[in-house]
Amino acid sequence: MTAKQLFEWSLGSWPRAIISFAVLCILASAIMMVTVLHFSPLCSEEMRDQEPSPDGRYVAASMVRNCGATTSYVTHFNLRTVESSFSPDFFDGVISDGEVATIGDYDGAVLFCWVSPRQINIEYPTPTSPLRTKHAWNEVTVTYGQKCP
């Protein structure tokens, strides 16, 4: 290979090297972002109270979600089977599986009581109203607002 051919070959490989380097930088940035979001999630969940159903088949839990200084605390209520556990989302740390009630801008306790093995009542403070409610989850019926003993 002559010097002229070597020079022409090296000029042709520069664009490939630049593209390869750019792809490598983008890939490294994506891996770092996924790692940071997974190991330092945006939100945290604090368990306030848990109680199994009368037959021991389900577990009800009251939790408070904290997503940082610029957002309000959110109290939410979740149900799960006794064999499972609550798992936070991979990226943001939110536990949304089995969430049946979400009460915004309130970090106090949400009272709840099992009325029967398949019915639970959630008593939330007034005048706060839930942002989101479900009236059933799997075989469990969910009622709201009635006084718990």
Description:
It is a single chain. With 149 residues, the chain is of the alpha+beta class. The protein has 2 domains: 40 residues; 101 residues, no CATH class. Helices cover 25% and strands 35% of the residues. The strands form 2 sheets. A 5-stranded antiparallel β-sheet has the order 1-2-3-4-7, with no helix packed on it. The chain has a 4-stranded mixed β-sheet with strand order 5-6-9-8, with no helix packed on it. A hairpin with a 5-residue loop joins strand 1 and strand 2. The protein is elongated and about 95 Å long.
- Largest sheet, spatial ordering of strands: 1-2-3-4-7
Low-confidence segments, given as residue ranges, are none
How many independent structural domains? 2
Mean pLDDT: 78
Number of helices: 1
Q: Termini distance? A: 92 Å
Number of strands: 9
- Cα-based radius of gyration, to the nearest Å: 26 Å
Largest pleated sheet = 5 strands, antiparallel
Which geometry do the CA atoms define?
elongated
Series of secondary-structure elements, N-terminal to C-terminal:
HEEEEEEEEE
Percent helix, as a range, is 10-25%
Strand content: 25-35%
Structural class of the helix and strand makeup? alpha+beta
